[in-house]
Amino acid sequence: MRHVIIIGSGPAGYTAAIYAARANLAPLVIASSVEFGGELMKTTEVENFPGFPEGIMGPDLMTRMQQQAERFGAEIVYDDVVSLELDGPVKAVTLGNGDRHEAHAVIYATGSAYRKLGLPDEDRLSGYGVSWCATCDGAFFRQKTVAVIGGGDSAMEEATFLTRFVDKVYLIHRSESFRASAAMLDRAKADEKIEFVMNTRVEQIFGTDLVSGIGLVDTVTGEQRTLDVQGVFVAIGADPRTHLVHGVLELTEQGTIAVDGRSSRTSLPGVFAAGDVVDPTYKQAITAAGSGTVAALDAQHYLETVHDASRAAATAV
Ligand code: NDP
């Protein structure tokens, strides 16, 4: 039986693995069969992760985290979790290949998935003009024209942030009313670099190697048109990946896993959560990494308690 199993291999999962491994807990990391490394595997250059003054490519950063975890004894399995048994003192994790792993503690760090528009070329041009993160990629669009899709706070925030770099932002929203808060909406509206395009859906993203434009349709009149843009920022919300723990762990109103205060302790003893799956607000690699640290330390303390309790029971016998 393992001390701890970490589910997820983004910055939260790998940082938890580094800390747990250095605490001699020999963690098993379930890294996913396809999406190992998390969202940073889909980004290009990361310029805001401390310690890399020249920037680092997202996949390189994740490879370094993985190597750092392995160096201290973390074992990584590239498979998907298909089911979990989390309620007893022994946790069990079953993988797609049928393997079943047991541990005293589980750290759940499955991240969140940005919602996609579902357009044919969206994935192909991801990292080549299509982005889900202005903080990460905005600086690559200096003096360009970009589109931000969405009508919530994320879209307002992305559009406003992008005006630091770009010449023009088209804020494209499919309806007439906004989910965004008044303050953020007013700020975006007051910015002369942002042009609001309402009642409009994006139907196509054009570009061979890089994004060159988008095809739009007016949701009221049905009229079609194209816009020349070099960037498309999709800001239509994100969903924490909690499908494996629905009905098992307590969730918040926002759909993230509920944790106790600033800790990573979930509603079940021995189960800890970290990264975007607990964070509806900040969603940065560095905050996820910090959250992974918290989870590893919480798991370590929990395991010490379990160990002390079993030693006391053995002595009593
Ligand atoms: P929201 O769910 O609030 O808004 C999503 C927006 O995207 C809506 O306007 C929705 O349109 C639109 N949308 C959804 N699906 C599609 C689609 N397929 N095609 C086109 N448009 C689509 O998500 P956010 O990420 O904006 O915000 C999530 C939470 O995070 C909120 O609670 C928000 O307040 C918070 N947040 C806070 C920030 C801050 O305070 N600094 C910054 C960012 C987020 P429609 O309205 O027509 O359904």
TrEMBL record:
Its catalytic activity?
[thioredoxin]-dithiol + NADP(+) = [thioredoxin]-disulfide + NADPH + H(+)
Q: Which UniProt keywords apply?
A: Disulfide bond, FAD, Flavoprotein, NADP, Oxidoreductase, Redox-active center
What is the protein's name according to its record?
Thioredoxin reductase
- Details of cofactor binding: Binds 1 FAD per subunit.
What gene name is listed for this protein?
trxB
GO MF annotation: an example = thioredoxin-disulfide reductase (NADPH) activity
**Family, similarity comment:** Belongs to the class-II pyridine nucleotide-disulfide oxidoreductase family.
Show where the FAD/NAD(P)-binding domain sits: 3-292
Quaternary state and interactors: Homodimer.
